[in-house]
Structures are given as C-alpha cells and as structure tokens.
## 1
Amino acid sequence: MTGMSVSASGLAANRKRMAAISSNIANAQTTRTPEGGPYRKKEVVFGAEPAREYFSDILEGEMGENIKKVHAMEIVSTNKPPILKYEPNHPDANDEGYVAYPNINLTEEMAEMISASRSYEANISALNTSKSMAMKALEIGR
Amino acid sequence: MEDTTIQTLASALNFRQLRQDVISANVANAETPGYKSKVLEFEEALARAIDIDGLESMKADDKRHFKMGSGGFAMLEPSIYEDPNGISSPDGNTVDRDQEMAKMAENKILYDASVQLLNKKLAMLRQVLSDQR
C-alpha cells in the first residue's frame, strides 16, 4: 500500500502548488498586503522524504529509504522587484506618483497551472494502477 | 508447499508490487529538485533463484549429499538503484514521466498475467484433488 500513499502525497503537493498559483493570479493587482508593500509571487518548494508509514518500514532499511514521498516543504515569496506604474491618483502611489504592482506574469502562471494539473493527473493514474493491482491480488485462488 | 511455479509467481507478484511503489514514487517526485529516478530490478535474481538450466545447483545424487542451489528463494533480493540513463533537467531531476507511465503499464499487465497464471496453477491442483473417485 506504500504506492498509494506515495501517490497521495503527490496529489497533496500538487494541490498546494495549485493553491499558490491561484493566489498569484488572484493577487496579480494587489498593492496592499498585511506585511506592507505589494503582493509578492508565492512559490511552492517540493522536497522528497522517505515513505515511512509504520515502524516496520524503518526496520526494513534500504528499501524504505528508496521509495520517497513528495512533500511541499515550504511556500516562499519570490524577491522579484515590483513593477512601477505611473498613477499619481492611486492611494498607494509614492511621492513621485508611481504605484508598485506585483511582478506577476499571468502567462507564466497559466503555464505553471497546466503543469500542476498534468502532474496531478499523472499521480491519479499511478494511484489507479496501484489500486487495480491490489484488487487483482484479491482474485488469486478464485 | 515446495512448488517452483507457485513460489516463482508469488515472488514475481511481490516484486512487481514493489516496482509499482518505486514508479509511483518517481511520478510523485517528477518535479522535486534534485530527485533521481529509481529503478527496481529483480528478473535476473529471480531467474537465478529458479535456476532452470541447473547451472547454479550442485548435483545431489547420493542421499548423503546436501541439496545446494535451486532453493534460492529465501535469499532473493531485488536491487534498487538510481537510473544511470536518466537525463538531468536544470534542477537536477532525472524523472522522465512518460517513460515511467509506460513502465507502469507494462508492469501492471505482467502483474495481472502472473495472477492469471497463478490461478491456472491453483485450478490444476484443484482439478487433481476433485477427480479422485
């Protein structure tokens, strides 16, 4: 059943990635944030970690070390400089009349979104294969 | 039961299940920076354990001889290693998702085939048991 939980971790990680992308698209024009300044593009960092479910997996040693789950380790704010637009009447304009807008490229976000959804689908089909193998095993001796 | 067919098929099922786990892990980590694609290999080890050509076993034609070789199922170990043919992307990841999906499909078909063979074998045994009258 390790395969299924590994695929599930892939699903969860890509869901998180999807959330970050949605947040980037939704906030493409946000000039005010609680931490001050314009919204900054969020990115999810993936990391691999050994799939250990039970104590026996730890005892198993090498085999367990080789099968790794994916985990969305952290969500980072990128440090791209904001885009300045001359809008002197905007309430968030600086002294020279420029407004700092988040540096978000919508095309890039859409591409990233498609990639996340493909990854999600790939994990789904891996999960389905694991499942149907488990179901097939139940047919032994019938 | 000391039946080579059943033992072989059972081991094959076990390893194919494990291979599915390895492939699932590769697919899940297709976008993890620095992750290296893993491969599980067992065919050769299994062939050695079955020992069809009899090269691995010693002749035991005297009843005082110990049987050696052939019964290698207990020590059967698959090997997992990093795919040496993987092409590294800029972030150091070597997973080729299409290739993994193809391997997964193949593995599943062979798994199902093993289950069918096992069922046939068991059906034969059942046949033998039921025909005594």
## 2
Amino acid sequence: MTTTTSVATPKVQIRQVGKVFSGAPAGTPAALQDINLSIKDNEFVTLVGASGCGKSTLLRILAGLEHHSSGEVLCSGRAITAPGADRAMVFQHYSLYPWLTVMENIKFSRLLKVGRENLSSSDVEAASGRADALLNLIGLSKVANAYPSQLSGGMQQRVAIARALMGRPQVLLMDEPFGALDAQTREVMHDLILHIHRIEKTTIVFVTHDVDEAIYLGQRVVLMAPRPGRVERILEVPLPARRSQDMKVGAPFRELRAEILASIRESSGMATDFDLLEKLSLQSEAF
Amino acid sequence: MSTTAPLTAEPSAGPIAPRPEVTPTPPSPSIWAIAGRLSRAQYWAFASLGLLLPLVAWAIVSASGWVDPVFLPGPMTVLERMHLWLMEDDLITDTGISIYRVVAGFALSAALALPLGLLIGAFRPVEALLEPLTDFIRYMPAVAFIPLVMLWFGIEESAKIAIIFIGTFFQMVLMVAENVRLVPTAQIEAAQTMGATRGEIIRLVLLQSAKPAMLDTLRITMGWAWTYLVVAELVASNSGLGYSILKAQRFLKTDTIFAGIILIGVIGLLMDQAFRWLHRRAFPYMHFKR
C-alpha cells in the first residue's frame, strides 16, 4: 500500500520522471531524464544548475502546470495531475494582481473559497487573522492598503510569498523568486524566507541559478545538468540549521560553492576558451 | 554643520576656504531630449499651440482673400453659422440623433465583442474557430455593405446602427481578444496554484486584468464608430450631422459643412476625454506617479 501516510512517507516523491516537450525537433535531448528525488516534510530543498538543465520544468511539473512524459510524481502520496491549492507557487515577477491592494492580494485564495461555500463569520474572522499575521510576518502591515505598483520589487515579492502561504499549502514552490532583485534586497529576502520556513513549517522547493543562494537557503542542494536534463548530484549542506550571513565567508560554505561551481561550469560547456580569445585579439591587432 | 574647509587637492588661500557666493544652477535637461520630460504647464502650452496654430492659419488664409469664401469660409462665418443652426434650425435634434446612432451601434458592438473577445482570448479552440473568420470579415470594407444593409433594413434607424456595428464589431472582437491574451501568464498560473477553477480564472483574473486595456479598446473604436456614422448618414438618412453636411454640399453652403465637421470633432474629443476620465476613476492603481 503506497497510499498509507506514515511519518516516514516523504512529502514529495519524484520517481523516474522524464519530460520531452512535444514539437521539439527529433534528436533534441530530453528536457528531463530519469529524475529521482524525494523531499521530506518541512525540508528546504534548492534546485540549481546551468540553464537548460530542466530545474524550472521540474518545479512546474510539481506545480501541475506542466505534464511529465514518464515516471510518477506524488505529493503526500497522491499523484500530481493538475495545479492545486496544496502546491502554491511564487514566480519571478508579474504575478501579483495590480488591481487588488496588498491585503486583497494576500486574501485572494480566500476570495476563491468565499465564492464557493457559505462561510460562517468565524471562518471569515480566522482568515482575516491569518492574513494579518502573514502581513506582520513579511513586515508590510503599514502598506496593507497600497497597490502593488506603489511597492518596490522586494516588497512585491514579499506579498507574493504571503499570498502563496495564505491557503496553508503543503509545499511552497519558488521559481527564481529573487532573480530580479538587487543583491542587498536579496540578502534580506533570504533571511526572511528562512524565518518563514521556521515559523510556517512549510516544505519549500526553491529553483535558482545563483549557487550562493542555493547553498545559503537549502538543507540539501539538488545539482542538475543539461542535455539531457538530469540530477547530477544531491548535496547535503554542511551548515547549522539556523543560517547567518557570516557563514558565507566560512570554509564549509566556500568549499561547497567551489565544488558546485566547478561542476556547473563543466556541464554547461560554456567555459571561456582563453587560447581562442588570445588568437582572435592577435589577429585583430594585425589589421 | 561644520565650517572646516573642504578637502581639495589645490592649496587654499587661507585656513578657511572662501565659499562661493552663488552656487551655479545645475543645467536643467532640455525638453527636446529624446523621450524627455515636460512639466504640466509646458504640456498645456504646447497643446494649446497645436490647437491654435491651424486656427490662426485658417483665419489668415480666409481673411487674405486668396481663396474664394465659397470654398473656404472664415472661422467667424463658421461660428455664426453654428449659432444660426442652433437658434433657427435643429442643431440639437441633428446632434442628438447622431449621438443616439453612434451610441446604439457602439453599445451593440461592445455587448457582443467583449464576451466573445474574452472567450477567444481565453480558449485556443474558440480562437481557432472564430479568429480567422473574423480576420476575413474585418478586411471587407464596411462601406461596401451599405447597399446590402439598405436592402435588408431600408433607411430605418436600424440601417445606420447596422453599418456602425459592421464597421466596429469585428475590429473590436480582435482587439479585446488581444487584450485578454496580454494578461501575464504568471497572474493566471498563480491563480491555478491557489486552486482557482477555469471559471474563477476568467472572472477573477482574465477579466479584471484586461479590463483597463478593454476600456482603451472601447475608446479607440468609439472614434471609428463616428466615422461609420457619417458614412451611414451621407448615403442612407434624412437627419443627423452627416446628413446636414451632405445637404449643405448640394446648396454650396461650405460654412455648414465646416460647422458640421468641427462639431463631430468636438463631440468625439469630448467622448474620448470622458473615456479617459472613466479610466482614471475606475482604475486608479494604473495612474499612480512613482
């Protein structure tokens, strides 16, 4: 029986998953091939790899926004076939609703429920309490009635995170959520999402191309490689559960970082050919 | 505030460097810079200039006597004609009937184009079913339908409304569909991962997100509705501003032609401004200055 849920059952199970995009020309390597990964309850897993390694595709399959071609994907023991409220996603940008205030955005999933069922006033009250708590958690109580266009990029992403958490999803999926933010804001967001992970006890799957981000946030880093998209290695991060920015200069962090970067450089096939550059500049000098 | 001398590479004359009496004003950016900025006052100055210049040129040309006033009446003559039309003739009735026709044809168009465009924008099969067809009909000149419309509807009000409908509906459907297609995918997918159903996504995301663009589509097509109104009134009518223009041509009353054209322009401008005002009122979140 695979449906019996016990403590040992992982939150997310990915078994032998493959993905070939329909319409891809013959001979194109698979977008994903033979992916195996299981994610424990309350774990924070980061997916990192060179572009084209399929990390975003894998995340979108978990969300149900993309269909896998082979294998099986389970969330809490149930097969994933379509998007659902148990797997909320935070996107890189343009996902907030500009016509709704910060508070209304956060309560969006509530709005869906209210439209469907007759909720008692205590339900509504509980929802308001939850929204207020989330607003406090992301530190934006003062701008509850502002519109997204009045907020900075970092503040907008905080709202997107709170909105995704509102419906208490089993898994929070994050697709390069801080990719468009400046370095300083990104550091603040890193500590915020780690704090949220502790408080909310959510399982988080986080896609990024930033190796530092992957190590700093993840309890495990899933290192992926392209052509075909595959899991290269899964690395335990040798850092204490409570992270702090000064760990980034410590030896364990730097060693892991060097190891991952070397692996990505190798798999991406994009290393700079200095001999060729030298030859080209000599040629151009000759003119 | 400290009064110590600023650190400079050059040796200063005394222990305290003399401060310059007048700080030079930083150069203000030229209003002629590419994609530069205009203050509100500057904007209105240029706008009034743009409106006044043709008027002045018109006054000069007509006053100079270079052109026979039968062909080019002066601004004052046209204004007088407008006044006479208002006092002694039925300017109000003519304007009223024209506005009624535009609004009726336009409203009918919008009532069908908005839901249909929404469906085309939301569902690929509906797009495949209807978009090529709409594109095909769109290229048929609406004016060419007039003989057919007159056969079918006679010269009743319904004939004018039908021509305005044919002229605006097919364009409007395609533009509304495009408005819906331009809704960011992340907005739709975020709703999906929050458990929204298809109906909820259409109602709570696609429609809400595309609404401001749809209102702009309506504003633009309203202008076309006026064009087709005049076409309809020129050939199949015995009332309205377009008909008055045609009648004036028969009697060589160029001042009436000018008055009619200018009136249509002014009404169009007012309706356009009304749409813009509505946009600011209905979608305040799109008009914040950052």
